[in-house]
Write a structure and sequence with these properties.
By secondary structure, the protein is mainly beta. The protein has one domain: Immunoglobulin-like, CATH 2.60.40. It is built from no helices and eight strands. The strands form two sheets. A five-stranded mixed sheet has the order 1-8-7-3-4, with no helix packed on it. A three-stranded antiparallel sheet has the order 2-6-5, with no helix packed on it.
Length: 93
């Protein structure tokens, strides 16, 4: 199994996206969680049309692995979707 990993430079902005194939979720949030399971950023999603949503997260300045976690309630069901985010150092040698 192959997993899609997003990679961003520390201190930049990460645009997380979600597409709802069913009903319109309400509420819907996106969070960035560090290796200690601490939420470092949590944002209510913005609808961009046709069931698509996005959230703009400030990327932490600390390089490492983070989880982008979406939580949505649609049709009385709770949905959770997680994706890996790899934050790399902004220094180039």
């Amino acid at each position: 199994m192959r997993m899609n990993v997003r990679e961003k430079v520390a201190g930049s902005t990460y645009k997380a996206t979600w597409v709802s194939s069913g009903g319109i979720p309400n509420p819907i949030t996106s969070s960035l969680i560090d290796k200690n399971k601490t939420v470092v950023s949590s944002i209510s999603a913005v609808a961009s049309g046709n069931g698509a949503f996005y959230a703009l997260h400030p990327v932490p300045n600390t390089p490492g692995w983070y989880v982008n976690e979406w939580r949505a309630l649609a049709g009385g069901f709770q949905y959770v979707n997680r994706q890996l985010l790899h934050v790399i150092n902004e220094d180039v040698d």
